[in-house]
Amino acid sequence: MKKSRWTLVLSLVLVLSVFLSACGGGGSNNGGNNGGGEGNGDSASEQIMNLYATAEIPSMDTTQATDATSFNAMNQVFEGLYRLDENNEPTLGVAAEEPKEEEKDGETVYTFTIRDDAKWSDGSAVTAEDFIYAWHKALNPETISPYASMFGTAGIKNGNAIITEGDPLYGKVEELGAKAVDEKTLEVTVENQVPYFKSLLTFATFYPQPKAFAEEQGEEFALEADTMLYNGPFVFSEWNHGEGWNYKKNPEYWDAEVVNLEEITVKVVKDTATSVNLYETGKVDRATLDADFVDQFKDGEDFSTILEPTMFFLRLNQGENEALANKDIRKALFLAYDREGLVNVLLNNGSVAAKYFVPKDFVKGPDGADFREFAKDGFFADQGEAEAKEAWEAGLEALGTDSVDFEFLTTDTELSSTIAEYAKEQFESKLDGLTITINKQPWKQFLKLEDAGDFDISTGGWGPDYPDPMTFLYMFETDGAYNRMGYSSEKYDQLVSDAKKETDEAKRWEMMQEAEKVLMEEDIAIVPTYQRGLAIIQQPYVKNYYVHTFGADASYKWVKIEGK
Amino acid sequence: MGRYIGGRVVSMVITFLIIASLTFFLMKLLPGTPFNNQEKLTDTQIVQLNEKYGLNDPVAVQYFSYMKNLFVGDLGVSFQQDGREVSTIIGERIGPSAYLGFQSIVLGTIVGLFLGIIAALRHNSFLDYGTMVIAVLGISIPNFVIAGLMQYWLGVKWELLPVAYWDGFAYTIMPTIAIASIVVATIARFMRTEMLEVLGQDYITTAKAKGLSSTAVVIRHTIRNASIPIITIMGPLVVALMTGTLVIEQIFVIPGLGEKFVNSIMTNDFPIIMGTTLFYSLLFIVVILLVDIMYGIIDPRIRLAGGKD
Amino acid sequence: MSMKQEKLDELSDHMFQPANTDALENEQIAGESTGFWKDAWRRLKKNPGAITGLIIILIIVLMSIIGPGMNEYSYSQQDLSRAKLPAKVPVLENVDFLGLNGVDIRGTDQYEAKGVEEYFWFGTDGFGRDQWTRVWQGTRISLFIAAAAAFIDFVIGVAYGGISAYYGGRVDNILQRIIEVLIGIPNLILIILFILIFEPGIFSIILALSVTGWVGMSRIVRGQVLKLKTQEFVLASRTLGATSGRVIGKHLIPNVLGQIIITTMFTIPNAIFFEAFLSFIGLGIRPPEASLGSIINDGFKSLQIYPHLVLWPSIIISLIMIAFNLLGDGLRDAFDPKLRK
């Protein structure tokens, strides 16, 4: 009796262990494709790159995507008329040659010819109609794209009118200044010429979609790897949404011979420490670091930093807060903030202290000089704590008080919390009588409060949507959608709106620089803090990994693995 | 018994509907839109996008259309993963979570029972305190710290196990240990208490008095009877673990449901929030019912209310 | 026969004394009477595990009160020139294996490298704030949150569970279904809503913890009361005409009390942990205030590079957890009349 009981227990344990190992075995079979190149790495320089992404791909529908992960993936598997090259200049993509330009009634008509060998991954040709189909879809109120405003930004005729409710053209997508003349000829009419027109065409919103296939797929289009067609250097060989996705070289790509990589694996990794650990064990070839890991890796040869054209600043709610409406108070805040400590110790990732608003290494003017050659070191570059205190005293006197309270609105991410804590200490320790209360909110609530003007100081960040200073400067027009702090200056508005219309590049450039000066020096409307840097480690055998300053993060088209 | 179960099922459906409704309205109180580039959208664009997704309708209208769809089994499509069915997403996410949860429960229960039994049999000795400290150690350090340490030492330094990903049995070991540590603590503590309770019962004295060896008493009477109430805590535990844990999934890069759920709440992905909540609560209600029924069958001392037919 | 007679004769009256007939004296208990509490305390004292737990808790509570004031640094004072220093303690710095000599895991003496003369007993964090002060300050806040949450759980849980079980039937059924609904609603949504309504901070966190925190307590109380209310002594008391109030107050509550206290002991560490989880997803305490959970979470990212940021708060959180568990187990044994020897 006793014996049989024990046998029962034993056999149970056995059954369980068999079951468990069976489960495990099954798991390892279906996922064995990753890291296969490891270990027996004798087959030197296999053209496989292993990467990770910090988020899932939300959408592969070019008209619906809004986020960096999607745009980056799309840049590898799709292609528009142009694509960005190594130097972030537009180079020919699907377009066979530079377009013919024709002036007509103050409008410019560009005629693009689509290259004959531009094909979708099923072998069908990329046609002008495919572009029209995608563009109309993006503007149609039924299927409107969150980036629909890009058509207006590009100056394409009626692009703005079609998405403006109440406009007689609202919803009439066929009125868009773009038409398919024949299968391979696309005519685009521009009513307002912008210098960055071709760069914009590299953006996902302007990609074509395979009309016949998309209509056949209906709702399923672009939801899975096999419900879309690709016309870029790579195709999706696998897309396991929550887990990751794999690319494979696209043999149908017109420029397939310059594409080296055979395969790219991407996993979704959200934790920084995990991604670094994966890098150290050779599971990924490139990883982004935060401040602490920089200390550990900064002396290695695989370490580098990239300066991105993304700006961080503090919004000062001068519309609602009486104290912040005082220019001296704003000046004191501007000057009291020690940006060096922030970028060198807390961020420690190649970020640059910024006393300016239009980033450096972003765009070059007509004379070939960086925009940032103007006020190179920012505004009030030679002033510091002493001047801050002076301005603060003057401000308090004007207000007739000796203490001020500000609510500092920030989000729940690690980084913004750090920045808020630092700012609080910077301001409170240098400006007597100032109390800062940090209000940390979930992202969506943060946006709601900021939009409603329910804050005194808030953390802001802005990355460019197109390669022009205007993508930053238009934010602070009076009542602009992104102003959110009640800033209003007639002079600034005038300069910005004039610059938008100006066709003489040199003059336009001057106007924008003047506008920045008004915003920063005359009005001290915001407190810029830093321009974001990115600290990365990348295996030395990964070559030609080109990083972009706007649109997609990078291009894998030219990447090759050498000397692994 | 039949009538009892029938009654419970009816009340289960009601409970389920109440949960669905309350969650729906509470969720609608969350601020902001479900669009993930909200900071770059102008107010007009937000209105247009809301229109497109029917989010401009009064909440009551949205509610009824949601409930109507729910009855035909349509959970809607995700906002964050544009256009994908909620049921597909939950389907592909639940696998890893359930597998890990199951494995952790098996491991945790075995270790937990073992520790609990030892502690109770050596009551108030240092073995007792020792096993309890070991049991509690697992839950006394936040499990993201345990996970991080394991990943660094076992994965990077000693290269014994893969750092992360979801690619087979070896990949499940570290996350399983991290999750099982919670189970161990719970089960061990509970088992110890129940064992002590049973050891004080008269029938144990009787068994000893009639000359049974102490091993027989422990195995046949004590452990068996002490294990029965474990079922009551296993139910909720199973549901909680099978549906995934955010922290572990994030650190070990496991495409599970826990991470998706927290993320959906943070990004206002309404259909995913609802779908996951309903899935979770359905599982929970059913498990509670099963536990109650099983309990009645296993332990003859407990009679279910109205079960006299 | 005759022998017997003889022996009887030998017994004379003077050999006997009258027995004490005072009935009261008969009932006299020689030992000191031990009430419920006294008895429990006496048995708790005999339990070395529980006493160790109690002492650790007392020390930690004491340190959370005096710790932040033990050096001249404040919890919010930043100085980036002394950021991320490892721990360094006078005297103990000479004992190498303790790792309290200001040398980081890569073998550099960070104090020397950064030219810092002072001693930071637990090191400094990324802002150069003194970890010792922050950790004890954080302990104070964590314990406060936990105690408040435990108190709320106690009040609601006991009342809810008691009512549910004592009245039973339909009342019980309805109350239990309400619990199922409460558990079914994701409490992260509730927490976010609380933070929106009441602003982030201690108050929202305590509320968030309390929304469903009491459910465990109520289930335990309910289970116990259900078991007790059908037992003979309750029946006897009823038969003798005791009111509901008396039955609950004199018979049920005292018998459930042990379980209640134990559950509370376990609620406290759980609350500390839940707060740590909230910090993990960024919804915790309002900076620059800190809790143990938020300190660990901040340090977690640099676990591999600056382990001291996680080490010290983790040790304290573990001690709290272990101590409360040991004390809880000890209390359970002390309160359980069946375990009396």
Could you walk me through the main structural features you see in this protein, from its secondary elements to its overall organization?
The complex is a heterotrimer of chains A (564), B (309) and C (341). Chain A is α+β, with helices and mostly antiparallel strands. Chain A folds into two domains: 219 residues, Dipeptide-binding Protein, domain 1, CATH 3.90.76; 226 residues, Dipeptide-binding Protein, Domain 3 (Dipeptide-binding Protein, domain 3). In chain A, 32% of the residues lie in helices and 21% in strands. Chain A is built from 17 helices and 21 strands. In chain A, a hairpin with a 2-residue loop joins strand 6 and strand 7. In chain A, helix 10 packs antiparallel against helix 12 and helix 16 packs antiparallel against helix 17. By secondary structure, chain B is mainly alpha-helical. Chain B has a domain of 164 residues: MetI-like (MetI-like fold, Orthogonal Bundle), CATH 1.10.3720.10. In chain B, helix 4 runs antiparallel to helix 5, helix 4 packs across helix 7 and helix 8 runs antiparallel to helix 9. The C terminus of chain B is likely disordered. Chain C is mainly alpha-helical. At the A-C interface, helix 8, helix 9, helix 11, helix 13 and strand 15 of A face helix 8 of C.
**Biggest sheet character of chain C:** none
N-to-C CA distance of chain C: 49 Å
Indicate the percent of residues in helices of chain B: over 70%
Strand and helix order of chain B: HHHHHHHHHHHHH
Beta content of chain B: under 5%
Structural class of chain C: mainly alpha
Q: With helices defined by DSSP (H or I, 4 residues minimum), what is the helix count of chain B?
A: 13
Count of beta strands of chain B: 0
